[in-house]
Structure to design on (373 residues):
């Protein structure tokens, strides 16, 4: 039986004369959520995305939530319904250039939302089918310049979703015309955590065995092959995140050795040994992102956002989201929206909202109502 999630209160100071504006620019900033039955939904598992209508989608461990500014709709796995979402645990989401919402799940692969019928088309893995893909856990999604969707996976390398040309509105027709190509990485665990498309069309992959360059035209994989000893470390480190700044420089978040920076001009990889406040071990970086002004932001494993000046390479601002006290709660990095708000989910503490301009932090926590007899 589905568990209910209800909106507890709204700010009385807001006027709702423009629902679209409210949905796009104010949504979630005035909500306090309370789960009235069942398991807590404070365990966020996915990125937060806004669709073309301004609706906000959040994946939790229990179900997929859609907020419209007034209430929430939940989408649950239902084995008896082929068009229900295939997994209640959504790990990542992506809105492509044709305004289609793609979802990567924790246990059943890729899904596509059908807004006309308010349902899902599920591309469930087919074991033994070489024309399909095999991984159940989708980590991230990316759209390349040709309109193909790429998936990073756990234990399944990366996969390309080749979509038919033209604007096919019917999702069932699209399902039958999709083609998958899987690329094993040859790393110890075949895990891809992040990726980006380079100017030459090749895909740069962050994996459990260093950075890998994939040429989609030839299916060949290679390394960056730096002569610099520091750069060569990136052939073996566990890499979590990648971003290219407005000057074409590459920032690399690693699990064990902090943050790397590759200069586009010198092709050298200096190591940024950012450390914990007590100066002990290097912090690792779970995500990197850019705001609309081009500033680069880096989320550490300690729940601290770092803004680094891409010209001077100095940390110019730190925002401690968790205040160094709740280190056992895993962070799910999300995104920076057009208002300069950083969204971050946690495994257990709900959703955090951070105003990057003034450092204000809001937490959308979840409370469980105690039942009385």
């Amino acid at each position: 039986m589905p568990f209910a999630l209800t909106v507890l209160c709204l700010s009385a100071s807001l006027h709702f004369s423009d629902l679209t504006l409210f949905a796009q620019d104010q949504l979630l900033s005035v909500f306090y959520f309370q789960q009235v039955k069942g398991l807590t939904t404070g365990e966020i598992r996915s990125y937060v995305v806004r669709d073309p209508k301004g609706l906000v989608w959040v994946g939790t461990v229990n179900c997929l939530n859609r907020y419209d500014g007034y209430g929430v709709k939940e989408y649950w796995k239902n084995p008896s319904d082929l068009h229900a979402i295939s997994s209640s645990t959504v790990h990542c989401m992506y809105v492509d250039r044709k305004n289609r919402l793609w979802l990567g799940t924790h246990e059943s692969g890729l899904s596509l939302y059908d807004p006309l019928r308010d349902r899902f088309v599920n591309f469930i893995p087919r074991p033994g089918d070489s024309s399909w893909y095999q991984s159940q856990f989708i980590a991230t999604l990316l759209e390349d310049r040709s309109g193909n969707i790429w998936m990073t996976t756990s234990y399944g390398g990366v996969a390309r979703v080749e979509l038919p040309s033209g604007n096919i509105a019917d999702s069932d027709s699209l399902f039958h015309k999709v083609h998958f190509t899987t690329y094993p990485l040859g790393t110890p665990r075949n895990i891809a955590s992040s990726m980006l498309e380079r100017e030459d069309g090749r895909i740069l992959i962050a994996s459990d065995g260093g950075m890998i360059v994939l040429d989609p035209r030839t299916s060949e994989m290679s390394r960056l092959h730096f002569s610099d000893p520091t750069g060569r470390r990136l052939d073996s480190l566990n890499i979590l995140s990648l971003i290219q700044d407005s000057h074409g420089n590459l920032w690399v978040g690693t699990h064990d050795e902090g943050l790397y920076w590759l200069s586009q001009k010198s092709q050298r990889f200096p190591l940024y040994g950012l450390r914990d406040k007590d100066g002990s071990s290097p912090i690792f970086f779970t995500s990197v992102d850019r705001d609309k002004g081009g500033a680069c932001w880096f989320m550490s494993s300690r729940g601290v956002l770092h803004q680094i000046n891409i010209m001077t390479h100095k940390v110019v601002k730190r925002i401690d989201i968790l205040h160094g006290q709740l280190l056992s709660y895993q962070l799910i990095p999300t995104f920076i929206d057009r208002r300069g708000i950083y969204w971050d989910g946690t495994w257990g503490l709900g959703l955090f909202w951070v105003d990057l301009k003034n450092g204000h932090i809001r937490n959308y926590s979840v409370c469980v109502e105690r039942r009385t007899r």
Observations:
- The CA atoms of residues 153 and 232 lie 24 Å apart.
- The first strand starts at residue 5 and ends at 9.
